[in-house]
Design goal:
Length: about 450
Amino acid sequence: MHLLDRRHALAFGVGALAAAGLIGRRLEAKIAVKEVPPPKFPIEKGASLRVLRPAKFVQGDETLWVANTKRFTEATGIDVKVDSESWEDLRPKTAVAANIGSGPDIILAWQEDPHLFEQKLVPMDDLANYLGEKYGGWFPVAKHYGTNAQGRWISLPVGGAGSTMVYRKSWVKQAGFDGIPSDFPGFLELCRALQKIGRPCGFALGNAVGDGGWTDWVLWGFGSALIDEESRVIINNPKTKEALLYAKALFETFVPGTLSWLDPSNNKAFLAGEISLTTNGISIYYAAKTSKDAALQALADDIEHGDYPVGPVGYPTQGALVINAIILKSSKYPNAAKEYLRFMMEEEQYAAWMDASIGYWCHPLAAYDASPVWTADPKHAPYKNVMRKALPQSWRGRPSEAAAAAKADFVVLNMFQNVCAGKMTPEEAMADAERRAKRYFKA
């Protein structure tokens, strides 16, 4: 676990970001909000807080989160310690904290994970309803993750790390294409053409929490899913086989080694010039744009972002990696925790955080469509609607303990791994995924 020292981060990070021109647009924001009185959270005497959040993929994310936390402490006198955990380790750390009832007061948890521990969480209807009313309403995917089956808010969606197709425009042009094709057949043709000229693509096929989500895009794009609307397991069907065969064809164009790739791997491969195309958040562009290396700065000019192609189902099927703030009932200071989250989600802090992250975390509240980050650079724009159009990771069912457990167990991703690696036929992989999923979804 990496413990962030606020003073060190502020001294180092904010200055560097200001020099790069990535902060300082706070006063330019023209975000329409409704004047709504904030809920009153009587702060507990002697309150202090611990926050656990995912490690940054763009420095501005972490730097501004810590800077905003410092502002909260200065405004309230409440000391806050922020811990940052690797993406792969955040989920087990969340489970341990929830189950033993000690550790962080607030966790920025993944996806459906709050639904694993619903009975151990502080309800947040008052805070979520206030923010929704003030900031133009929550996007559907945010409500999906934030509320339980009864419509009560059990977590607060803070943002979503969404992906686009990230590519080298000069190499794509060399392969004979002007951009990313809009359909699955055209996209496969592009990947084959890139491989032919020695510029392969590469998507993560290890147990990557975020970047492994491209397999959902393919599965849903062929009209299949792990479960249906009644949470019945339906993965073993002909449309899943089509998805697996398509993914195997894509995999044959990948650079070697993707079966072991975790979330940082494709970033490193792209920046090293080993791949021409991947699916990722804006972190690759961010790293190149803010680098002091002239070669990487030149690379930034060649980076473009494009929408995911649409599969036979006929509509966009990408998801978003959503972080949901939860407050554990074991916390001695739940009111202080709510006040901290309110403060962090208000325009003065939130818009600056998005700006410093150049949109890596996309907003869950409609009013933040007007954040200046989306017009500061044309290459940011494809990420603006990540949360607005994202499908939830439990598609087509509701979030639940079973959905969260199946996602944590990489049931769908492992199915694709097995076929791409040649370990199983599509039929064997579907049957294996069905068997594993039924451990969680009881008939």
